[in-house]
Amino acid sequence: MQETRTISLSVNGEPSTIAVPVRQNLVDFLRDTLGLTGSHVGCEHGVCGACTLEVNGAMVRGCLMLAVQADGAEVITVEGLADSGRGADLRQAFIDRNALQCGFCTPGMLASALEYVERGGSSERSAIREHLSGNYCRCTGYQSVVDAVCDVIDGRAQS
Amino acid sequence: MTGPLTIFDRPNSHIGKSVPRPDANRLLQGRGKFVDDIQLPRMLHAAFVRSPVAHGRIENMDVSQARAFPGVMAVYTGADLVAHVEPYVGVLDHLAGLRSPPQMPMAVDVVRWTGEPLVMVVATSRAIAEDAAALIEVEIDELPPVTDMERALDVDAPVIHEQYGSNLAWERTVEAGDPDAAFARADVTVVERQFRFGRHTGVTLESRAAVVEYDPSENMLTFWYSGQAPHMMQFILAKHLGLPEENVRVVSQDVGGSFGIKIHTYGDEIATAAAARILGRPVKFVADRLESFLTDIHARDHVVDGRIAVTADGKIAALAFEDITGIGPYSMYPRTSAIEANQVLNLTGAAYTLENYRARARVVFQNKNLMSQYRAVGHPIAMVVADGLLEDAAHEIGMDVVEIRRRNLIRDDAYPSTTATGLKLDDLSHHKTLDRLVAVMDYDARRAEHAHLRDAGIYRGIGLVSMVEITNPSPMFYGIGGAPIASQDGTTIRLEAGGAIHVSSSVTEQGQGTNTILAQIAAGVFGVAMDRVKVTTGDTRSTPYGGGTWASRGAGIGGEATLQAAFALKQQVLVVAATILQSSPDGLDIVDGQIVDIGSDGGGGGGGKSASVRMSLSDLARTVYYRGNELPSDLTPELIATRHYRVTDVPFVFTNAAMAAEVEVDPDTGFVKILNFWAVEDCGRVINPDLVDGQIRGGVVQGIGGAFYEECLYSEDGQLENATMADYLVPMAFEMPDIIVEHVETPTRTSVLGAKGAGEAGTGGSPAALMNAVNDALRPLGASIHQMPMTPERILKALGTV
Predict the structure, then answer these.
(1) Contact A102/B205, CB-based, under 8 Å?
(2) Tell me: the pLDDT tens digits for A126-148?
(3) Which of B81, B196, B565, B576 is the most exposed place for a label (fewest CB within 10 A)?
């Protein structure tokens, strides 16, 4: 039950070699072992999107991936985004638009929104809404999140 | 009423401005502090075995294998905790006749709902605790469950609590005027409908969680909790764990959604506290999503048979209904499970002049999860019944739904007024909000467009609601009934040595922006910039006593306490400054962190063009704190002020709103697309427009959830069949409309600040507007629906398609 395996990975640019329980999912490893509690656990079955984070350039559900699967991977969490400055305009737009309330969905919502913005998504509201449909937010009603993403896309287009 | 009325006009006032939340960046950088983020030395983790059946007698529980499992530190059954926890009872004195038996954190002999905690396993990790829990064998002799609330009062129904002789928990009837005579009049049209409201739940994205640390050396229990009412929890933990109240500290940091879910007493959390105390080690419990669905309080679950009588000129002659609601096997502690039904009686038709009214509510026990207060308690039921009946009646007599409202809404100049049940109403603006709504949504043009589209086989509809919301509750809500739930709140403001201020308040932050509005009020009234304000909330050790944030009270009550405290601190500072500067307090003001002279043409509000800077707040504070030798010995400055505030003359401060939905129904699939939603609301003085709009929009969307998607589906034998996020549908971004929000501001005269609440209007009002809109769309097809959620299947059934 407590079988472990040693993995090497980079989390927010910091390398680690560490033994992890083979049954532990990635988000629990990040939170409990590395103390990176910015990624949140909402449903543990891949529906709510609160644990969305980046693995090797792709946004994944941290609850649906085992830590051992991240052997050799580059992982970026919400803390890493903040430290590197990546997505700073998106975070500022979330502040300006009040696109978060309790903040629990926010790390995952940011990750999904950043994925959309960085891949050149359009500022068409229905397209943004469709992209964010895998991220559950109980507080905002989503409108302010869509506003924030629109602002960033328009801002990046002008700069 | 005390305090300066010029605060809203001060040049450095932040009240009324969309100030960004100072705490947003922390949450955006992943630096929030939620309960599950807490890791303490030697912390253990709890997992629970829960009842797999809805009703049954516990015959045997074999915990031996679990106890022997490596890493397991303790296993407790319900019986094991009897010696450690005093049972709790969810009744209040002012809900006369409400009955509910004593409850323990875990079932002791009989299980009464699927998911009820049976055994707690405490281990070195959550995974080990769950592994061990899976080894526990439970034998339960099943008893017949009572799940259908409409049959719970049948004479042959099994009785859940034998000592009561029936499954009735509470009953109340209210009557005004002579409804029988009004319904019998020859000149009225009577419309009767049955409304069905499914059970749904809060689905906070952060599930319920507790970390509990017990220090035996000081007999001190610290409870980190994801919740809304720290002082209430302090009392409950002290009372039921047998600790002196001052030896319990409750801390609520970031809370990942609450909505009324996290304001109750949950057995698993009490058991976690008991375990921490017994073991002398910190214990963490975090509900997983299945546990959330099974045990977070559920809401609604009403069947209402209602009827309305209207005259040919559209006047409501009478309104009457019978409501039955199922609350699970116990009334929730300490707020009870009867408040929602009581609010339905209080609120139905409260927007309208209503002389003849009769309503009866019956609250029944059943073998499902407990039902209790969730965002907009009772409001959606009350608004759907009143405005659903009213719009259907309007169509019966051939009157427009806006016109019939204009003929019945209480006039804006008729306040103070009272509801049919005697509740005082004041400072409302139903007509003004309705007029604004009609203009904003371009009502007439939209109606004409719909008629045109119907010819092309496109079925669109418009529905409205004119609603009231209960906010800023007084002690009449809970305190009068004996609950440890404060209606007053307090704020302490301290001048910091660096010239900043620190605000400490008993209201709490769950994301709505409470801390921000407290900072706005304090900064503006006192006279510093927003970035010179720090706010602490959610800690029983360091904040004044108060109720916390629920029932839309944070801004109205906590805000007023903050305003008064800021004003008091300012007066203190000006007295000290006048002494140091050999001036008069009346001749000084605080602007942007500086003590200034009020210039002769400064207008008295501070910041006049001839105001001159005399000294900084930092200089003043450092003089007082560090160089007292420079002060006259008879000057004993405090530089800290506390004020408490409660609503006194009315039970609640009502707000109002007019809302409308525009939908398109696909008669082939039963799917409904929400095209537009408008909300024109009046929460009195708006402190921060962006934050209020966020409350309204988020609230509307939660109402959309209840109206179209969310339902806790139980089987006949009491199994919750959709207890995952994949199966229980909630509003997601793609289906949601953009929501247009407008404000009418009629400040409440109960406070200087004038703010009413805004947290529940959206959830309380939107279901009625949505149901009316769907029925407007269905009407040409000869169909109607009065059941929520309005699923595609139910709409197709209403159409006779399936």
Answers:
(1) yes
(2) 999 999 999 999 999 999 999 99
(3) B196
Measured at the CA of B762, the angle between CA B757 and CA B763, to 5 degrees, comes to 105
Cβ-defined contact of B206 to A40 (cutoff 8 Å):
yes
Q: Is residue B202 part of a domain?
A: no
User: What is the predicted ipTM?
Assistant: 0.98
Angle formed by the axes of helices B689-704 and B761-778, nearest 10°: 50
How many angstroms separate the CA of residue B288 from the nearest CA in chain A?
Answer: 7
- Kindly report the number of other CB atoms within 10 A of residue B140's CB atom: 19
- For residue B257, the distance in angstroms to the closest alpha carbon of chain A comes to 6
Q: Hunting for tokens 């007439």 — which residue is that?
A: B444
* Mean pLDDT value of segment B735-739: 97
Contact A40 B730 (CB under 8 A): no
Q: Report the C-alpha gap between B778 and B392 in whole angstroms.
A: 12
What is the rounded distance in angstroms from the CA atom of residue A62 to the CA atom of residue A33? 14
Nearest CA in chain A to B512: A101
Domain that holds residue B503: 5-32+488-645
Q: Which of A98, A131, A150 to mutate against chain B (most B CBs within 10 Å)?
A: A98
B535: burial class by Cβ within 10 Å (0-12, 13-18, 19+)? Answer: buried
Span B294-323, pLDDT tens digits: 999 999 999 999 999 999 999 999 999 999
The pLDDT, as a whole number, for residue B13 is: 86
Number of domains in chain B: 3
Q: Compute chain B's Rg from CA coordinates.
A: 28
Pick the CATH number of A4-81 from 3.40.640.10, 3.30.70.100, 3.10.20.30, 3.40.190.10: 3.10.20.30
Asked whether the beta carbons of residue B739 and residue A126 sit closer than 8 angstroms, the reply is no
Verify whether the Cβ–Cβ distance A45 to B700 is below 8 Å.
no
What are the tens digits of pLDDT across the range B656-667? 999 999 999 999
* Structural contact between residues B306 and B192, judged by C-beta atoms closer than 8 angstroms: yes
Domain annotation covers residue B653: yes
- Quickly list DSSP for B389-437: HHHHHHHHTT--HHHHHHHHBPPTTS-SEE-TT--EE-S--HHHHHHHH
Of A94, A101, A146, the CB nearest to B511: A101
Say if residue B4's pLDDT is above 70: no
Asked if B29 and A106 come within 8 Å (Cβ–Cβ), the reply is no
Domain CATH for B616:
3.30.365.10
- How many CA atoms lie within 13 Å of B399's alpha carbon, on the beta-carbon side? 22
Distance from CA of A112 to the nearest CA of B (A): 12
Mutate to test the interface with A, among B21, B25, B27 (most CBs of A within 10 A): B27
Rounded to a whole number, what is the distance in Å from the CA of B128 to chain A's nearest CA? 9
* Residues B570, B523 share a domain: yes
The whole-angstrom separation of Cα B802 and Cα B797 is: 5
CATH topology for A87-158 is DNA polymerase; domain 1 (1.10.150)
Size of interface A-B (CB pairs under 8 A): 182
Q: Given B258, B699, B725, which is nearest A47 (Cβ)?
A: B725
Are B312 and B432 part of one and the same domain? yes
Q: How distant is the Cα of B690 from the closest Cα of chain A, in angstroms?
A: 7
What totals of helices (H) and strands (E) does chain B contain, helices first? 19, 29
Residues of chain A in contact with residue B37, where contact means CB-CB under 8 angstroms, are 31, 37
Percent of chain A whose predicted confidence (pLDDT) is above 70: 99
